[in-house]
Amino acid sequence: MKNLVTVFSSPRDTFERVRGSKVAWILPTILVILISLVSLVLQMPYLLDYTRQAWLKMGTIDPAQIEQMLGMTTITTYVGGIVGIIIMLFLVALLLVLLNLIVRGEGKYMQFVNVVAYANLPSVIGGLLTAVLLVAMNAQSLTDVSLSLGALVADKTSMAYRILSLINPFTIWGLYLYIVGAATMMKRPRKKVAIWIVAVWLIYSLVTVLSAPAV
User: Fold this and answer.
1) How far is residue 56's CA from residue 64's CA, in Å, rounded to a whole number?
2) Under 8 Å between Cβ of 15 and 185
3) Do 100 and 113 contact (CB within 8 A), yes or no?
4) What pTM did the predictor assign?
5) Radius of gyration of the chain (CA)
6) Is 208 left (phi over 0), alpha (psi -120 to 50) or beta?
7) Which of 5, 86, 133, 184 could join 15 via S-S bond, C-beta 3.0 to 4.6 A?
8) Cβ atoms of residues 196 and 99 within 8 Å
9) What is the rounded CA–CA span in Å between residue 146 and residue 38?
10) By C-alpha distance, which of 166, 168, 197, 202 is closest to 180?
């Protein structure tokens, strides 16, 4: 429990403590899942409305059928959210193993699973804060509230909005934890590890943004 607090104040010391543990990932993962579920509950009305409008614009689905489909969408969103978190936990850890080989580090797979579990905390906290603000401000759509630089762009359908939305303090915070955690497990200079992690994040994020269909 202590590590859930100290990972924000003393990340390097925290990762040193969990270095030898094969189960340290469990508690932060449970917390990430719980926070994500709360965020989904708060955002679900907005997600369903967005999906409903998208299907109505298609004009090929009967409105009555859409409501039935939305019920199934709710279930799959919750289940997919949980499963996705678990899959990404172990998948990203594999990518860190690859980086470990590249920089000739000393890290092991389960150590990187621990890193991913703790490094995911800032992003879900940011997601929860966004969801709370959506409800508190009685927002009309998901894009009405943003903690990123995308909030400075008026046209929420523009490419500028998508790109600036990548610059989020909680995302940067999470990247920092990835860098500190990975460098600690690999026993390699933080700067060397940071170059690789930031580069991969930038490439992945830009490809995702550029390949996303226009709203």
Assistant:
1) 11
2) yes
3) no
4) 0.89
5) 19
6) alpha
7) 184
8) yes
9) 18
10) 197
